[in-house]
Amino acid sequence: MFDLSDISILNWWTYGIVGATFCLYIGIAIWARAATTGEFYVAGKGVHPVANGMATAADWMSAASFISMAGLIAFGGYGTSVFLMGWTGGYVLLALLLAPYLRKFGKFTVPEFIGDRYYSQGARIVAVICLILASITYVIGQMKGIGVAFSRFLETSYELGLGIGMFIVAIYAVLGGMKGITYTQIAQYVVLILAYTIPAIFISLALTGNPVPQIGLGAGYAPSDGNITLLGKLDQVVTDLGFKEYTTQVMGSYLNMFVYTLSLMIGTAGLPHVIIRFFTVPKVKDARFSAGWALVFIALLYTTAPAVGAMARLNLMNTIQTGPVGTEEGNLLYADRPEWFKKWEKTGLLQWEDKNDDGRIQYYDDSNETFAEQAEQYGWKGNEMIKVDKDIMVLANPEIAGLPNWVIALVVAGGLAAALSTAAGLLLAISSSISHDLLKGVFMKGISEKAELNAGRLSMIAAILVAGYLGLHPPGFAAGTVAIAFGLAASSIFPVLMMGIFYKKMNNTGAIAGMLSGISVTLLYVFQHKGIFFIPGTEFLAPSLGMGPDWFFGISPNAFGAIGAIVNFTVAIAVAQFTTPPPDHIQHLVEDVRVPRGSGEATSH
Description:
By secondary structure, the chain is mainly α. The chain folds into 2 domains: 9-312 and 401-442 and 452-488, Sodium/glucose cotransporter (Up-down Bundle); 326-397, no CATH class. It has helices at 9-31, 37-42, 49-60, 63-76, 81-105, 110-117, 121-153, 158-208, 213-216, 230-240, 254-270, 272-275, 284-302, 305-320, 339-347, 369-378, 393-400, 405-443, 449-471, 478-502, 508-530, 561-577, 584-594; strands spanning 350-351, 387-388. Strands 1-2 form a two-stranded antiparallel ribbon. Helix 4 (63-76) crosses helix 20 (478-502), helix 6 (110-117) packs antiparallel against helix 7 and helix 8 (158-208) packs across helix 18. The longest helix is centred in the N-terminal third of the chain and has 51 residues, at 158-208. The radius of gyration is 25 Å and the shape is globular. Mean pLDDT is 78; it is low at 1-7, 531-548 and 598-605.
């Protein structure tokens, strides 16, 4: 029988805060329900630039940003700065090169722009396929974030947590469309930014004495009376245990880091669910202002993330390594492990195995051959923390640091807000491409507005169900999956948008050839080196697909989108040179899109 006394104080806080935010989201959806296709697709093009910037930031800062990015930084150190540089740099590209011109074109969706600019239904259909591939891959990471947060803090099963998240998204996305999603995302931004920064302030104050995390990251380590910096202490702790120095780690090679950053940048500028946010503002200049405000709101989290990652790693290491390395009392007794450790073990995201039967936890890099010899002298038989899922670091960090229950509960609400906000934007991009681009644009051009609105809602429900199914079989930690989604957008959508705006002689044949070649090369490379990651039960195919270290010039699959984009540009331009150029009215259209309204010809006066 269910006993209320079994519910901990933390759970009461979590149920209360998460429940309140869910009620807020549902209330906004009922208030902002869409009555027309214009409201469903682009919120009636009446969103204020500042409000749109905040909604864009929430749409953009997904479970990968909130949950996974600091986890990646915690374990990858300097090398994972590619995520910070790539994702924020991509917004600059979007603001300068795409957003105002696409808003001036005045369409509902990215495939609609591509279909009209390249005067081809075939180009529109190919764009829809590319959009769905990138968006579905991206939404998998959001679904995992929802499941992880629910399974740990609300003590539900992963499956039930995922189902609850799907239900909440369905209510406000299906009912309100872009109008409902926009105002819900504004509320979600407030929740997620408070949830991210408040714990960071507490932890920075405890570790460095400085309440500003961005400054605390480079400040003195308080327990040592400031004789060593926080980063210096972290370097010392991890290198003593055979791990690479935190502040000098790289992701594979410097070439891979460069290509990875480029892939994330142009992938950001090519993500349809982000681009359509700029279709919701009244005027072209508002699109520029929206992008600027979005960067401000995003920067609040992105400049905090390095501090969160470094402090989380230091707290974790200090919890397990309780004394000098190699001494008997140097490692935490498993029987004395803290309560947060036990709770995360129940989720399967944290696992320990006693390899030398001493009852203590040895956590070190057993792949480091030099340190392995030293570890053998200590009587260690291998790294006993056989699983530390990167995705738990942000959610577990407040517990590790001993913060109040209400702060821990707020972090849960923030993680869910980040995952739900991005999931809603992605699902809208998918459903609008099906109902507006395929149904109305290609197969049923005479469909009424009411029928199209209903079709949009039905396709949204279908997209939620597919995303939920894939979320039950997540392909690894969230940010890795998201990086592949950016690669798919970078290799297919970004080049065709750029050439559509800045190269008036690009024709439909070249555009289609470029999109198909770019995304095909990227998918083949990913399949070859990661296995067919999004189809459950096909892991047995991996060996036959050549999984291994044979990366092209050392470029990882997650970074290969930039190479796919180069292929896209090259093939498109080459094909365009040998095929019929676009009609004159299309070339004039491109020129008009690039020229601001009200500008005249240059004169000598």
